[in-house]
Write a structure and sequence with these properties.
The chain contains three helices and no strands. With about 90 residues, it is mostly helical. It comes from Thalassovita litoralis.
Length: about 90
């Protein structure tokens, strides 16, 4: 099903969309706008999924075990030592 809508475009948007039609990439202005809206929907959905995953990660980290700053310092020093031994980090 399609719905007729009236929209307004800026001059640069109109020139760009018409250029796509004139070059044969799209059959009509409607096709250009439909494709653009599909891309925007996909982008929005991907961002929502990413945000949900980040929220889940933060929730897990907040509710997870805590380590002291001394333990963290020790872990960092050990990681640096391992990297230096493997040649991944300069001395």
């Amino acid at each position: 099903m399609t719905v007729k809508s009236s929209i307004s475009l800026s001059d640069p948007q109109d020139r760009f969309a018409r250029g796509l039609v004139e070059s044969g990439q799209y059959a009509s202005l409607s096709s250009v706008l439909q494709h653009g809206l599909d891309l925007l929907r996909q982008k929005t959905e991907a961002e929502e999924l990413e945000l949900a995953a980040l929220r889940q990660l933060v929730d897990r980290r907040v509710s997870g075990p805590r380590i002291s700053s001394a333990d963290m310092d020790t872990r960092i020093e050990q990681m640096i030592a391992r990297k230096q031994q493997s040649g991944d980090v300069g001395s």
